[in-house]
C-alpha cells in the first residue's frame, strides 16, 4: 500500500512538472526572436541543427544574407527573409517586434565591426539596432574563438586584438558562447530581458519632447523618477507601459 501511495505521488509530481513545462513552452511560442545567418559556414548543417530547438519554443524569423542562399538545401524548407531585399523601415519594424537576436555563425568581420560600432553593412547594422534598443544578442563563438593551435602559433598581438574585441562586445552585454550552449543561453537572456528594469529620467522625457513625441513606451517593470513624471505632465507626454514578452522597445 505504501508503495502505491509513493507511486501515485510520483505520478502527480510528474504531471505537474510536465504541465508547467508545457505551459512555459506555449507562452514562449508567441515570443518573436530573430536568427541572423549572414556569414559563410564550413558546416551549415551543424549550425542549423544547433538552432532547430528554438523553433519549438519561440516564434522564429530567419534573416539571411546572400552568402547563405547557397545553403537553401540544408534549410529543409524553413522560411526566411533576405535582409538585402528589405528596406531599413521593414528591418526596423521587425527589430521593434523582436525580443532576442541570435547569431549562430559569426566572423572576425562581425566581431571587429560590432566591437567598434561600425554599421556599414546590413548584418552589423541589424545587430547594432538591437543593442541600441537594449535587446539581448547571443553569438556563437565557434570559428572565431582561437583554437589551441592558433593560440600556440598566432602572433600575440593578433590574439590580443581578437580577445580585446570579444571583451568589448561582452562589456556591451552581448553574450558570446559556444554553439552547444546557444539555446540554453537564449532562454537565460530572454528571462533576464523580462526582468530588466530600465530607469526613466527627466532627460529622457526632455529628449522625447525635442523629438516631438506624444508618448514614451516603456516595459512594465520600468521605473520612472518623480522628476520624469513631473516633466511628462508638463510636456503632456504619456509614459505608456508595454508587454516586453511580445517584443517592443522603450
Question: Which helices and strands appear, and what pairs or packs with what?
Answer:
Layout: H1 2-28, E1 32-37, H2 44-57, E2 59-64, E3 80-82, H3 88-97, E4 100-103, H4 108-115, H5 122-132, E5 137-140, H6 148-153, H7 156-171, E6 174-177, H8 182-195, E7 199-200, H9 202-210, E8 215-219, E9 223-224, H10 226-235, E10 238-242
Parallel strand pairs: 1-2, 1-4, 2-3, 4-5, 5-6, 7-9, 8-10
Helix pairs in contact: 4-7, 9-10
Walkthrough of the structure:
- The protein has 10 helices and 10 strands.
- The protein has helices at 2-28, 44-57, 88-97, 108-115, 122-132, 148-153, 156-171, 182-195, 202-210, 226-235; strands spanning 32-37, 59-64, 80-82, 100-103, 137-140, 174-177, 199-200, 215-219, 223-224, 238-242.
- Helix 2 links the parallel strand 1 (32-37) and strand 2.
- The longest helix is centred in the first third of the chain and has 27 residues, at 2-28.
